[in-house]
């Protein structure tokens, strides 16, 4: 008679740090887990099930035996689904304590948004796009940023992208921000 072995250890990475959780709660979402572990930059915003600002980048190598990058909603992603994955939050791509990522830097220099509430989602969307596609088309850009635009920042986005387009030092950033 064979016995089924169940592994009660969840192993994944957050911003390059290995995480091992024993007996993880299968109902706990990544956003709650991130908050519990001290990652507070991922925003929580939900109206009519629109949660695009809770995005993060996921390098996933589970079952498919390949590497790919996704923009995901931390408030909808159970942590148990992350076994073998590497999660990068907005804190993981750059900060004022380390060094800002060029996307973060350009948004900050342009005084990016009114309340900064949606900014983490916009940054992660742009970062994910550039990681997946260093030469995005206008359609790629529109599709990527479409879900992150909140009413309070529509006009700010125009100024952000105009500023980034004129100040971009990196060719890919210039391409990314040229559509406004």
From TrEMBL:
<dbReference type="Pfam" id="PF01799">
    <property type="entry name" value="Fer2_2"/>
</dbReference>
<dbReference type="InterPro" id="IPR002888">
    <property type="entry name" value="2Fe-2S-bd"/>
</dbReference>
<dbReference type="GO" id="GO:0016491">
    <property type="term" value="F:oxidoreductase activity"/>
</dbReference>
<dbReference type="InterPro" id="IPR012675">
    <property type="entry name" value="Beta-grasp_dom_sf"/>
</dbReference>
<dbReference type="GO" id="GO:0051536">
    <property type="term" value="F:iron-sulfur cluster binding"/>
</dbReference>
<protein>
    <submittedName>
        <fullName>Aldehyde oxidase 5</fullName>
    </submittedName>
</protein>
<dbReference type="InterPro" id="IPR036884">
    <property type="entry name" value="2Fe-2S-bd_dom_sf"/>
</dbReference>
<dbReference type="InterPro" id="IPR016208">
    <property type="entry name" value="Ald_Oxase/xanthine_DH-like"/>
</dbReference>
<dbReference type="InterPro" id="IPR036010">
    <property type="entry name" value="2Fe-2S_ferredoxin-like_sf"/>
</dbReference>
<dbReference type="GO" id="GO:0005506">
    <property type="term" value="F:iron ion binding"/>
</dbReference>
<feature type="domain" description="[2Fe-2S]-binding">
    <location>
        <begin position="89"/>
        <end position="147"/>
    </location>
</feature>
């Amino acid at each position: 008679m064979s016995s089924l072995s169940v592994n009660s250890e969840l192993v994944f990475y957050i911003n390059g740090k290995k995480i091992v959780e024993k007996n993880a709660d299968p109902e706990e979402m990544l956003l709650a887990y991130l908050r519990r572990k001290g990652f507070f930059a991922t925003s929580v915003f939900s109206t009519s099930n629109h949660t695009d600002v809770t995005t993060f980048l996921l390098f996933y190598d589970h079952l498919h035996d390949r590497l790919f990058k996704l923009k995901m909603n931390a408030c909808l992603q159970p942590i148990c689904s992350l076994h073998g994955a590497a999660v990068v939050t907005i804190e993981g791509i750059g900060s004022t304590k380390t060094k800002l990522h060029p996307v973060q830097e350009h948004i900050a220099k342009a005084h990016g948004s009114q309340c900064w509430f949606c900014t983490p989602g916009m940054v992660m969307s742009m970062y994910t796009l550039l990681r997946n596609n260093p030469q995005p088309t206008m359609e790629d850009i529109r599709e990527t940023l479409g879900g992150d635009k909140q009413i309070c920042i529509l006009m700010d986005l125009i100024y952000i992208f105009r500023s980034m387009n004129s100040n971009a030092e990196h060719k890919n950033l210039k391409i990314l921000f040229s559509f406004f």
